[in-house]
Design brief:
single chain; 447 residues; alpha/beta; TIM Barrel; 2 domains; two-stranded antiparallel sheet; 17 helices; 49% helix; globular; binds iron/sulfur cluster
Length: 447
Amino acid sequence: MKSVKQLVSTAVMNEAYQYMAKDPMKNLPKIIDWAEKIKKVDYYQNTLQMFREIAQDPENNWNQLIQRYFNELNPTTQKKFLINFMVNAGMVGQSVIDKSKEKYDCNVPWAILFDPTAACNLHCTGCWAAEYGKGISLDYATMQKIIRQGKELGIYMYILSGGEPTVRKDEILRLAEENDDCMFLSFTNATLIDDAFASEVERLGNFAFAVSVEGYEEETDMRRGKGTYQKVMDAMDILQKHGIIFGFSTCYHSKNTEVVGSEEWVDDMIAKGCKFGWYFTYMPIGKDAVPELIATPEQREFMYHQVRKFRATKPCFLMDFWNDGEYVKGCIAGGRNYLHINAGGDVEPCAFIHYSNVNIKDVDLIDALRSPLFMEYKKSQPFNENHLRPCPMFDNPEKIREMVNKSGAHSTQLEDSETVEELTAKTIPAAENWKPFADKLWASPHE
Ligand code: SF4
């Protein structure tokens, strides 16, 4: 049930949206004027000032991104993004989260990532999802339980991964429809996206997609299989036609970094309709991992500079999940900002950390947040004073070893259980190689 605060905020934001949509760039500054007069938004004054400056400068790349929002997205999506994402997840939910943290003395995240299924119609080289246990899925009641208990704690953002979430199209649409105050985002290989599915997503408005793509045809098909790139391009056209929010989700590794970090490729993705782009780096998880795919320190530094440059100039929200640790004070896992629940129900600190003490089928969400491994995370974050070395596995392998051993967490890799010592044996060289580069960047003036 929606709270009174949420009902009032939704009604007010609906009015504000109707007014703004009439002439967005002219009316946005007036909405900001009005918002600044409300006492309760004191906390957001800096954000409002930033929006004011953006709204006054048509050359600004964020101004252009806002224009794309109004020009390219369908009206339902525009409204749902504003209310579900900005208001419910960003404002209403955040104050409940703050209270929940205090009450339970544990991390409470802003977003929950869960895998509706481990099944996938592709088999990408070096993908850990392939090793989770192919036939496993979260039943619908468990997914509903995660969201219901999440909302009680103030969480309105749900991210689906896998496996391939669109293998279960009907159920994920039903989840979005039955939780129409939440925002959903699905990672997807996009090969199952068609017109009928996109029409339903357009009708609901509270669903976005992070489309996996690894460069142009050669780089994408190299890991994902022949013909995948073309299917991804077709899917982007379908999503764009329906005015749905989507962006690229790209794993950079030793073989594709120069391509996916190039201006030409980013411009092409924006031209296809991407409103955001998320970069991840290759992690050697599981026994089928390919450590040679780990990006070199030079490549990681290259991405550090490129993403900062593009973020300041392109009408697209770009993030690099490893090199942007400085904006979020290091690692966001363990419930600090997010957690992961795999298709078997194991509650893990992060999609890349396959260790857990608890299963969501046996415990409530709050108990999972207070489980030993999560409490170890809370105690130890940040894992490094240098936020360009944020990760307890990839950058500080001794930290994940210590936390897993102290908490007694077990491996959640269903088909090829891996000890934390086996895992970190693969990441120690990468951590040692990156350290001097990260320390030099951290010591130099940065944003
Ligand atoms: S555990 Fe590593 S990969 Fe996961 S959020 Fe933290 S820094 Fe990122």
